[in-house]
Amino acid sequence: MPELDDPRTDPFDVARLAAAHLASATGVERHDIALVLGSGWGGAADLLGETIAEVPSHEIPGFSAPAVPGHVGTTRSIRVAGENGAPDRHVLVIGSRTHLYEGRGVRRVVHGMRTAAAAGAHTVVLTNGCGGLNLDWAPGTPVLIRDHINLTATSPLEGATFVDLTDLYAERLRQVARAVDPTLAEGVYVQFRGPHYETPAEVTMAGRMGGDLVGMSTALEAIAARQAGMEVLGLSLVTNLAAGISPVPLSHQEVIEAGQAAGPRISALLASIVRRLDDASTTTSVD
User: Fold this and answer.
1) How far, in Å, are 52, 87, 263, 264 from residue 46 at the CA level?
2) How does pLDDT run across 80-91, given as a tens digit for each residue?
3) Nucleoside phosphorylase domain spans which residues (predicted)?
4) Which residues are marked as active site?
5) CB-based contact 93:68 (threshold 8 Å)
């Protein structure tokens, strides 16, 4: 089996192997939508529909067990019943998100996106827990990602691969989300490398650059998803005020607790949004 970390290996070959494994393990030949559940969002999977199969993520080529508390270690295939005569759809809920700070390389970080596309997904919903810069967004506030700033000093794209990111977080999908909840705010997400939290000066910099949310995931995955031809919807849960804005020191426990408190409400919101996503895709793959 080709090793994902070997520079001689085409990462898309490993993604196709992973997709074939999922098709065999779940009995579902094609998945329509992919879902990555960050801190606080995990309960949405239980509200979507019938779980067809759960696959330990470390058994799927290119994946490994989660390294972060609060993240699940399984990938689920869920059948979502069609409404008003529409056909059923299948959602691939990707477990074991890999973060860049784990040191496993950017290919591992975005492998879930490439696998989802190889499994047939036309749309991916990326969620996360993050720090907020806007004092009006109390912990527990869900925010649509309008755009991002990538401060990781890396990219998932290799070689002369030029991909347009103008409408990376699709306005069409954000309209679907706002149809479910018109009160949803929008913001610009800034991905730092981590695993340390941002300093107050870095948060100030992010704000002056136009950022509203800071975290350690999502941006690299969104870029890879666009390269693979998927539409992207991004949702952040403000789990805490960012450093220098928050009057108290930051902790991962705070993130987990805020996610747990908001979990039932935001999970119901996310499930309602996913059920409204249709099969039309406006993005195209760029090689």
Assistant:
1) 12, 20, 12, 11
2) 987 666 788 999
3) 33-275
4) 198
5) no
